[in-house]
Amino acid sequence: MKTTSANDSLLARALAQPETEEKVARRILDAALEQFTIFGLRRSSMDDVAKRAGVSRVTVYRRFQSKDNLVEACLLREGSRFFQQLDAAVAALPTMEERVVEGFVVALRHTRAHPLFGGLLRLEPDVVLPYLTVQGGPSLTATVDYLTAHLRRAQQAEGRPGSDPRPVAELMVRVAVSFLLNPTSCIEMEDDDQARAFARRYLAPLLDA
To answer: Which residue intervals define the domain HTH tetR-type in the entry (predicted)?
Structure first.
């Protein structure tokens, strides 16, 4: 997997990435998701994905050029789907506090259960961890940008003081990532109700910090 700059991170592009309507490309990406989920990135080749998709190797290369590009396209699509689901889950909630609480619950549940994101953390943690830790600057920046924009819009809608919500957004993202990477804790976070109680007690008060 290749690194990207802060302005060109996978998550930043996923926010604006429309899902392809091209039938063969969708079929290849579906096959890639299944292949990477079962065998990981190292043990998967373009030939493996082509066989699973029922297309020729040439067809896969014609659309994605390289394994790096295919992995990136797969991550982009899943990232885009994640943000769409997160937006849908919190859109109807009336207050910023409720959206923060439910957004934390949905993000934690989705990432842990996702066959690719959660699966790669289990199958190949040494491949994934650098992109969430020492090489995680671009992803952190993009996710904080996303949450900051939501918090700022909620501030305006609720008439809250116009303080910069970015530090609060960063704290929330860092907390969520830490629980994703190492769920072992004295804080019980095994189900949605426990995650909701944690977010309501510890994250929601940050909005008034």
So the answer is: 22-82
pTM score, whole prediction: 0.70
- Token pair 């990435």 in the structure block, residue: 17
- pLDDT for 9 equals 53
Mean pLDDT computed over every residue of the chain: 80
The whole-angstrom separation of Cα 52 and Cα 153 is 44
What whole-number distance in Å separates Cα of residue 20 and Cα of residue 37? 21
Give 116's contacts (C-beta < 8 A, 6+ positions apart).
33, 36, 37, 74, 75, 78
| Closest C-alpha among 16, 4, 7, 20 to residue 83 | 16
Is the Cα torsion angle 33, 39, 45, 51 positive or negative in sign? negative
Separation between Cα atoms, residue 19 and residue 22, nearest integer Å: 9
Which residue reads 């072992």 in tokens? 184
Contacts of 96 (CB under 8 A, 6+ apart): 151, 154, 155, 157, 158, 160, 207
